[in-house]
Amino acid sequence: MLLIRAALAAFSFRAVSCDFFVDEEDGRLRSPEITSKYGYRTETHKVETYDGFKVEMHRISASPTAGPFDPEKPPVFLMHGLMGSSGDWIMIGPKNALPYLLADRGYDVWMGNGRGNRYSNEHSYLTDNMREYWEFSWHEVGIYDMPVMIDFVLDMRKVKQLHYVGHSQGITVFLVLTSLMPQYNEKFIKVHALAPAAYLYHLKNPVLRYLATHLSAVENTVNFLGWNQYAPNPPWVLNVAHMFCPHSVRNCVNLMFLLSAGEFQHLLPKIVPVLLGHIPAGASAKQIYHFGQGVISGRFRQYDYGLDNNTEIYHNPDPPEYNLTNVRAPVLIYYGQDDHLSTPTDVGRLAQELPNVVSLNQVADASFGHMDFLLAPDVKAVLYDHIIASIAEN
Fold first, then answer.
1. pTM as predicted
2. 391 falls in which pLDDT band (50, 70, 90)?
3. What are the beta bridge partners of residue 230?
């Protein structure tokens, strides 16, 4: 096991007043419409992967307060988690959400979208009603989507490196990329890993653990029914949120607690209509199966197709492990004590196995969970200000 080279740090979770500059309409708008609405110059860029997917990135290139980005500052690339999109990063609005804060400080901000979500749902020869279209997990996001997006940003800016911020699966795909294509390590100045999802053996979410334990039966049932994707919420879900959340804190919190098995303890009710407009943004069932396999095996490895298929595909009865010793980019890890998905124990194991962990940062508030990295009322004070300060060092 490799030793962490920097001391453990902790953030204090203190009560600070904040306003979320959002309204319910933001749940019905696409990401570029939202950022433009708040006065941020926004661009949309689409690139094609080696296997034919057309993945979309959203760029904030100017702030209403700071003007155009500073060309002397490196670009910052943000990558969402499972069933998410670029919309994950902007739900809590200007003055609070990380992309806006970075743009206000003169950074060129890029938000990626993995294949299969609402922004990256085109393919050069497949359509999303074909089973073949959905035959991907986060492994393919890592080896196909990530390199073309990273290279596009670097080429556009004519620079060699960028800063990277990923939440949950946004770090999973970074680990896939840099473990299998280690030359990409040189393209990251720093990697800020928020609630990284790699090892999941100690996952505490009871619903997800039950599904993982019965993964084979779930997979067979889903395949029989032809449910090979998890689609974005239909409009009626937003109507339900409109009815329950803005007017009743108790009903709203109870609803979100039920849906998330406790992962939204700090959620403000007025954010729920926006949240449900952006999550889920679409994903393949295979992405969830892949995470489920890790819950049961306790290992971070490629997709398990079963003994016979593994032998044919990998020339081995077991899928290969991702070689984390190849991940040489500087990584700063941030984790919550009450994260039911990326638990402190599993995050600690990841930190021990990565060769270049700059810091392992625990949010001091004992109730800080997985989605608080995007939605907590005090996330700017307890997390984002620290990330921005770290980015400003390079």
1. 0.90
2. very high
3. 283
* DSSP secondary structure letter of residue 90: G
pLDDT at 210 over 80: no
Which of 96, 16, 14, 97 lies closest to 365, judged by CA?
A: 14
Q: Mind giving me the DSSP string for 204-243?
A: --HHHHHHHHTHHHHHHHHHHHT--EEPPPPHHHHHHHHH
Tokens at residue 7, please? 């001391």
pLDDT band at 235 (very low <50, low <70, confident <90, very high): low
pLDDT digit string (tens) for 87-120?
Answer: 999 999 999 999 999 999 999 999 999 999 999 9
Q: Are 68 and 173 in contact (CB under 8 A)?
A: no
Dump pLDDT digits (tens) for 274-285. 888 898 899 998
What whole-number distance in Å separates Cα of residue 9 and Cα of residue 373?
A: 17
SS3 132: helix
Helix (H, G, I), strand (E, B) or coil at 177: helix
- What amino acid positions are annotated as catalytic residues? 168, 370
Interatomic CA distance for residues 54 and 133, integer angstroms = 12
CA distance 192 to 303: 25
The terminus-to-terminus CA distance of the chain in angstroms comes to 29
CA distance 347 to 341: 10
- Give me the mean pLDDT over the 65-74 stretch: 97
* CA 390 – CA 228 distance, rounded (Å): 40
DSSP 15: -
8's enclosing H/E stretch is strand 8-11
Specify whether the CB–CB gap between 110 and 59 falls below 8 A: yes
Q: What is the CA radius of gyration of the chain?
A: 20
| Whole-number Å distance between alpha carbons of 30 and 271 | 16
Give the contacts of 234 (CB within 8 A, at least 6 positions apart). Answer: none
- H-run or E-run covering 336: strand 331-336
Q: Is the dihedral of CA 46, 141, 232, 229 positive or negative?
A: positive
Tokens of 111: 């938000």
DSSP class of residue 97 equals: S
Q: And the tokens for 139?
A: 């492994």
Grade residue 214 by pLDDT with cuts at 50, 70 and 90: low
Rounded to an integer, what distance in angstroms lies between the CA atom of residue 19 and that of residue 42?
A: 23
